[in-house]
Design a protein that fits this description.
single chain; 455 residues; Chitinase A, domain 3; four-stranded antiparallel beta sheet; 13 strands; 43% helix; disordered N terminus
Length: 455
């Protein structure tokens, strides 16, 4: 368990939205490193005769609680196609996690942390918005999954209590000095092990069929050379991927993912080893066909990203109210999109006249944004757009949006931004360590009575 992991008694079918956001109703708060708690809907583990397996500060943990949670963990591992642990060891770990949670909840209550009904209501609204449904539909699904709504609200309340406890008792104790940042940078920059270098490549693959004739191969090579020429002329690589590539990753802009060099084909590593981020390789020939590679990131393992892909987007935001339902807002934005695509309206003009966001005066223009600047539900949709493309209406915690991606670019972080990336990474690691120490201390001070082992 890490600092970001909320207690195991709840699952992640629906995710709580984060903390209050900053200007423009899109940027998440940077005040907390805690992950949003997750909430368990399903309780489909087989039920057996129940009995108490442990008592923590006079509060019991039952066998069925442990088995339900163990079943949830196994289901998640199966979905991730991850190896499944031996059942006895899994139940032992689950029981220990439940003991830690009970000890922390006891501490929260003893020190006066309270979660009122309004906070639980807001959490329900956040869950509904992030899952693109209304609160009534969320509650219907909760009941359909076999959970009593009052139990679900109790789980929410407990997770919010744990979050506030950890924010209060752990976060303030963690500080990263300039000396620690300097030392980390010095250590990483002196590491010359090739296996520690991480790269993120994007590719255009012009596939060559197994039985291709010499004429076909020549034509396909010319196609790859055209893609290369346009990439080096500065055209958006993601758009070129959509136009030219035959690979399955074309919907993701051809990105192959950040990984160590030894996890890429040697052909790819050799072709890009002398390229800086943003560089494009010559056309390569492999058994699959012709490749054009672009270096998106390159860094020493454990180093923060020193260059990022920035996006410039604009949006129209409508906030549901008594006068405008969420469904009506969706319909209105759908009509806006049809009119813009048909050339009957201008996005910026519609934003100035209709958007309920601080960016309206700028035609909805949000400026250049680094990854993570917008709330996840907004950014995930924006990241799937090609330049010029307009999204369907989407619901965030702030309302209903229509997004148009205007441009993308790769840019180097400034030295100050790089240092802040290192500081944030070191702080995250320290938070994990501080949380573990804190949790172990609470566990040691709690009254814990172990009874019959879970079965």
């Amino acid at each position: 368990m890490t600092y970001r992991l909320v207690a195991l008694t709840v699952a992640s079918l629906f995710i709580l939205a984060g903390l209050p956001a900053k200007a423009q109703g899109l940027r998440p708060s940077t005040g907390s490193a805690l992950a949003a708690p997750a909430v368990r809907l399903s309780s489909d583990a087989p039920q057996s005769a129940d009995f108490i397996v442990a008592i923590v500060n006079a509060e019991p943990i039952t066998n069925n609680e442990v088995q339900r949670e163990a079943q949830r963990v196994l289901q998640q591992l199966a979905q991730q196609r991850a190896p499944q642990p031996e059942r006895k060891e899994l139940t032992r770990q689950v029981l220990e996690s439940l003991i830690n949670q009970k000890a922390q909840l006891h501490q929260a209550r003893e020190t006066g942390i309270r979660i009122d009904e309004a906070a639980v209501d807001q959490a329900l609204q956040n869950i509904a918005r992030q899952n693109q449904i209304g609160v009534a539909e969320l509650e219907r699904r909760i009941v359909a999954e076999g959970l009593v709504l009052s139990q679900f609200r109790t789980q929410l309340r407990e997770q919010l209590m744990l979050t506030r406890l950890r924010e209060r008792d752990v976060e303030p104790k963690v500080r990263i000095s300039d000396i620690e940042v300097d030392q980390y940078l010095k250590e990483r920059q002196s590491n010359t092990d090739p296996a520690s270098v991480e790269i993120n490549l994007a590719q255009i693959l012009v596939a060559v069929p197994d039985a291709a004739s010499a004429e076909q191969i020549s034509a396909l090579q010319v196609k790859a050379q055209k893609a290369l020429a346009r990439a080096r002329a500065g055209e958006d690589f993601a758009l070129l991927v959509r136009e030219f590539s035959d690979a399955s990753d074309r919907a993701n802009g051809g990105q192959l993912g950040l990984r160590t060099a030894n996890r890429y084909p040697p052909l790819f590593v050799e072709a890009t080893q002398n390229l800086a981020p943003g560089g494009v390789s010559d056309v390569l020939r492999s058994g699959a066909g012709f490749h054009v590679l672009k270096v998106l990131e390159k860094k020493g393992s454990g180093m923060p990203i020193m260059s990022v892909t920035q996006s410039r987007a604009r949006h129209i935001l409508l906030r549901p109210s008594a006068q405008l339902s969420e469904a009506a807002a969706r319909d209105k934005l759908t009509d806006f999109k049809k009119r813009i695509v048909a050339g009957q309206a201008d996005f910026a003009a519609l934003a100035r006249d209709n958007s309920q966001d601080g960016s309206a005066a700028q035609g909805g223009d949000l400026g250049w944004a680094n990854p993570g600047m917008f709330v996840p539900e907004f950014e995930e949709v924006m990241d799937r757009l090609a330049p010029g493309q307009i999204s369907d209406p989407l619901v965030s915690r702030f309302g209903v949006h229509l997004i148009q991606l205007m441009e993308r670019r790769s840019t180097e972080l400034s030295p100050r931004e790089q240092r802040e990336q290192v500081r944030a990474m070191l702080r995250e690691k320290k938070l994990d360590e501080a949380y573990l120490t804190w949790a172990q201390d609470l566990r040691g001070r709690a009254y814990v009575e172990l009874r019959e082992p879970p079965q």
